[in-house]
Amino acid sequence: MTRFLIRRAAGFVLTLLAVSVVVFAVMSMLPGDPALSILGIEASPEALAAMRSQLGLDAPAPARYAAWALGALKGDFGTSYAFRVPVGGLIAERLPLTLSLALGAMAVTLVLAPGLGMAAAARHGGPGDWAVMVLSQIGIAVPAFWMSILLILLFAVRLGWLPSGGFPGWDQPLAALRALVLPVIALALVQSAVLARVTRSAALEVMRLDFVRTARATGLPRRRILWRHVLPNALIPIVTIIGMQFAAIVTGTVVIESVFSLPGLGRLLLQSIANRDLITVQALVLLFAAIVVTANFLVDLAYVAIDPRLTGRQS
Description:
Elements: H1 2-29, H2 34-39, H3 45-55, H4 61-73, H5 87-122, H6 127-141, H7 144-158, H8 173-207, H9 210-217, H10 222-233, H11 235-259, H12 265-274, H13 278-306, H14 310-314
Helix pairs in contact: 1-13, 5-6, 5-8, 5-11, 6-8, 7-8, 7-11, 8-10, 8-11, 11-12, 11-13, 12-13
Subcellular location: Cell membrane
Organism: Pseudoroseicyclus aestuarii
Membrane topology: Multi-pass membrane protein
């Protein structure tokens, strides 16, 4: 177990290091001059050279990467070219909204999808199974941004129950929660459709095994068989998808925050791209990549909690 955890932790660190190198290299190769973006096209060559020196852009690439990476370890990602404030402060200011949106969508997904998937598997071939399959197919087919527009038209425009966008701030808790309802649902519906189908397929595979037939033959209630015997043995593919989905939800906030005008990390990323604020884009891309890598690392740990025998297979 200890050896497995050490190997996974080392892989986690090395993956983050590789991601940081790739992100820095890609951002460095993008066209454009940050100094020119800050000073404008009328700036003199001397002023541009001085600004590049101030930003550290005149140093060799390895030196610039080392300085950026060491600063990132301390939470210092540099100063935003567009906002002229520390990038770390921008991220810290907007991170709670994005995390609330992602965690809320993940919670809704975990409440809806496993139950629907298990219900469909228990009624395989019946009307309930077909209903879940049809609804999940619709959920997968409809993009999240289009689902957002439909929700706005129904619940905000026609019914007037919820706001169509904007965020009042956390100093108004009830209003803040109401502002997050529609974006959370828009993110969760698509992911719930995927997870429900995976849960159904995994449960059907387990239900064909001999020990489930034996449990049925002993007269155990179907509900107990499903939740005490089938679901625990179907968790590996389900947990795999959950880890991938959380990463997809976090990165999906880029679109959802734009549709609902939410001041989170996704909207900040789009604003930074539009303003050619490469230092902020670089930090945000690294952060999103780190979240994806962390989700995969936690999935590996969940595998061990579900089935400790996997440590021997994966070490």
